[in-house]
Amino acid sequence: MRLTRFTDNSLRVLIYLALSEERDITISEIAQKIAIPKNHLVKVVHSLAKRNFIKTLRGRNGGIRLNKTAKEIIVGDVVRMMEGQLEVIKCFEPRCPLATSCRLRNLLSEATDAFLLVLDKYSIYDLVELREDQLKKLLNIA
Fold first, then answer.
1. Residue 127's domain spans which residues?
2. Domain tally, the chain
3. Does residue 127 have a pLDDT over 80?
4. Which of 29, 35, 78, 138 makes a 20 to 30 Å CA pair with 44?
């Protein structure tokens, strides 16, 4: 299974915010620190805010921050929401002549469920807790 760049960027933003929980972060700062083009980042931030993973503050002193604690944001939930449909193959677009008897679709569906079960075991906090100092150093976060 392969995640889209959009989901990858969403997870990176959440990790960055988890490392900077004590302050509001600007989109420009994130774009610079994690090398995501600002125009892509705006879409990611909008989507994360719409799904209540982050909150945005407008105005001169505005920025973004996590809407929940990093422990409450489950990686599997982020992937499900940002990816949308996680169907690996589409047997009916166009219609496959094997669709009525083939077991491949069920097997891949089971594999996707297993993939998500693993992601459901981890929160954004789990991604940063043991390496917080190293990550902050790499990203030059004070």
1. 5-139
2. 1
3. yes
4. 138
